[in-house]
Amino acid sequence: MKVILIQGAENTGKTTLCNQIDEWLQRELLREKGINLRIEMTKHFSKKNDFFAVYDIYTNKDEEKTDSFKARIFINSGSEEKCIIPFGRFYKNENKEYYKNNHQPDLLITAIRPSKTLYKKTIKALNLDNLEELNLSSISCSYKEDIFKKNLLIQLEKTPLELIKEKIRELF
User: Fold this and answer.
1) Residue 21 pLDDT
2) pTM for the complete prediction?
């Protein structure tokens, strides 16, 4: 399983990015791939715009053939402590109450906070103990100010959404 951690402090765009991924999965991926796909989605919302969801993606066969499973993707936009335990239960499908089948996840996309305590709680709740801890710089782009410090040029190679789309496309 591939894991994508979207790290950032409060109000840095983690939920916005997760919403963009969700929208792309539901609307654009189906058209983009040029194959007949079907998505079964189970989604839960919190009181604060955060959500977690599972997407089971199938190739949609004709009426005579059974759909074949392609990929399972989890998305969690909540990074606050009160979001970690409910998402952990959802991810593990405790009591088989959240979704039907037992497909193994192919991709997990989750928001996390830079706090060591919250990071460790997230890793523990999702049984990701073998995940290597990476220390990233807080700036992941190039930037330059002009000599009068009036203008700032920020150079992004790829948007975070494009990077994640590439990883999802690799599943097919």
Assistant:
1) 96
2) 0.81
